[in-house]
Design brief:
binds flavin mononucleotide, Rossmann fold, about 50% helix, 10 helices, globular, about 260 residues
């Protein structure tokens, strides 16, 4: 089993230490091959907003940077762990820059069947940042099974530190087990609505921006009910069709090419 950690701190500090603890825990399991990407060591440059990745494909990005190298590692890994310190109650600029460069995955997600864990380090109040990272990797296709915020370990009193480390181990073990069992999550109504919305979008924008439609068609999603085989009841399908047609008539009122 391959696990890739992607770490967004500009230094080898607290997040790096947490990454090492996660690595040690995972490597106690015999079948784990652990790899890591410290974003500070990769050349990503800055997105110039050309939209080529979104309107064409990721590899059309003119930056000629290390993004594809990191994506190759993501493709090889069965699970990823995103780790970022809180900066102004959000991910670091390094992590956000990386996430922005994968924005095209919202249009054309591809990491289904893979698992993810998200980790934030900082003082306290991790929820917004963890939710952001969770939502992001979920939109890339990952099943996010675990998330945890870790306050400054060295400043914690003994009992809180012990509890925090125990919780971290628990989350890492659960993440490992979820990769091992390989089960796909059963989508809720919102997930299926999301699928229908992006499908509708790729059909409506077929002429103006064909990349999405071509990808969705090639994946068999244009005639499908979800990204992967799952049961969706008839009443849900009917309700979704109704919501979908309301959504597209709303968009048509706003946009010329829709
Ligand atoms: C520029 C900057 C902004 C920060 N903003 C926050 C913040 O909003 N909330 C918080 O809890 N900690 C904040 N911190 C503290 C870091 O999140 C915390 O020290 C983190 O564990 C550092 O991780 P690192 O050692 O891996 O870089 C900030 C630190 C820096 C340098």
């Amino acid at each position: 089993m391959k696990v890739l950690a992607i770490m967004g701190s500009p230094r080898k500090g607290e997040s790096y230490k947490i990454m090492q603890l996660i690595q040690e825990r995972l490597q106690q399991k015999e079948d784990v091959v652990f790899d890591s990407v410290l974003l500070r060591d990769y050349n990503l440059g800055q997105c110039t907003g050309c939209h080529l990745c979104i309107f064409k494909e990721g590899h059309k990005c003119p930056l000629n940077n290390d993004r594809e190298l990191i994506e190759m590692k993501m493709k090889e890994a069965d699970g990823i762990i995103l780790i970022s310190p809180l900066y102004s109650q959000h991910v670091t600029a390094l992590m956000k820059n990386f996430i922005d460069q994968l924005s095209y995955l919202w249009h054309r997600p591809r990491y289904f069947g893979k698992k993810a864990m998200v980790v934030a380090t900082g003082g306290a109040m991790f929820k917004v940042t963890l939710n952001f990272m969770e939502e992001t990797v979920k939109r890339w296709g990952y099943h996010v099974t675990n998330k945890i915020g870790i306050p400054h370990l060295d400043a914690l009193n003994d009992s809180f530190k012990e509890k925090t480390l125990a919780k971290l181990n628990q989350e890492v073990d659960a993440f490992y087990t979820s990769i091992k069992n390989g089960k796909q999550p059963v989508p809720n109504f919102g997930d299926v609505m999301w699928f229908e919305m992006w499908k509708g979008n790729s059909i409506a924008m077929k002429k103006a921006h064909p990349a999405d439609y071509e990808y969705w068609n090639q994946m068999g999603w244009i005639d499908g009910s979800y990204y992967y085989p799952t049961h969706i009841s008839l009443w849900k399908k009917l309700l979704l069709r109704l919501i979908g047609s309301m959504g597209s008539s709303y968009m048509k009122k706003m946009y010329k090419d829709y």
